[in-house]
């Protein structure tokens, strides 16, 4: 059974360990900077990029406001086209539905298209417990599976692995899952890709059942859409007799014409390409081509709860492009595993706490896994204001209150604050409420600036463990204004 995210420590502890790994940091820095630069070039080709972002955000927001209508319309059209729709309230129900569907075919193996939702639900482990083996066919997901590892990036799940590591993984583990690696395998990318191609080909040709996700679901036609770069998705979506797609309810778009917007935004934001090499669309089943049976499992798993939050719901716009990860200074140094979720980086810091609720210290820590620099918002193709949501979730952690988790109202206790912190915050609040006291405090601080300590005393020292106290100016802005302008601001 593979590793899971369950029970992982809070972000600060996990990140502290990750930042000590020099190889990890080197791999991440090289990969994210390369993807970031290519994305910027691809985006610069479109003069109407900002208009496309605004259009995508508007489409998503309109859909989320009327999600019940569009999901009902989607179900009607999928059913009319010969597919079967299943509704899953949570991860356990989704895994149970998929397991029963596979068992009904009599098969004990499935091939999989890269899918964030099945990572979220832990489907592979659920299938393994039922005696069913799932084979990942995306190259990076294959690497992660063979290494008994966890994905660390939305687009490039094995971004934390170097070529030499991948070669060794193929040599040591491929034979346990099927065709072994070729003799004398090198770490050349072409050789590694060819080894994966030979290993997977027999699975594509023999598998009777496939499991996928979907990037988009079109309500007006019942069409599912998968975009990918390797062709493994096309093989999985067309060759097996049974196709099971597990998709989050937020992936629906109202109409076919809406794809025109997203199919311009997604490839440029994710792979820095003008269009995806493979865009597969299917509507139900056909006697002439493709799977004979199609099952669509619509997953909630906390999404309805997130939808009820007026600020946090914008996280449901996400199209899983990973652009925010590639510009995030925190992700670049800590890596994806520190987030304890299939959704790492800035989007994970706002999505995971909303999908899971205050389940553990990990979820409470994620909104603080950010410098609030705003780079994530600048590159997001659907204009999610991630810093705004981070501050919103931080307030929820700090102040407590009621949240809805899986449809149940739950009271969250306010975060524990040290007595020194409470006293300092009260003193600061009083000082800012009294201009005269603030003026005297600023002048006193300016005169005592040479006495600035290198480290704050007592419990406040945790702040200066990783930061330097700023230099104090010789005079305050108010005094400077009075001296140069002759009147108080």
UniProtKB/TrEMBL annotation:
GO terms for molecular function: 4 iron, 4 sulfur cluster binding; metal ion binding. Residues 309-330 form the 4Fe-4S ferredoxin-type domain. InterPro entries: 4Fe4S_Fe-S-bd (IPR017896), 4Fe4S_Fe_S_CS (IPR017900), FTHF_cligase-like_sf (IPR024185), Helical_ferredxn (IPR009051), LUD_dom (IPR003741), LutB/LldF (IPR004452), LutB_C (IPR024569), NagB/RpiA_transferase-like (IPR037171). The keyword 4Fe-4S applies. It holds the Pfam family LutB_C. SUPFAM superfamilies: 4Fe-4S ferredoxins, NagB/RpiA/CoA transferase-like. It comes from the Bacteria. Keywords: 4Fe-4S, Electron transport, Iron, Iron-sulfur, Metal-binding, Repeat, Transport. GO terms for biological process: lactate metabolic process. This is Lactate utilization protein. It comes from Streptomyces triculaminicus.
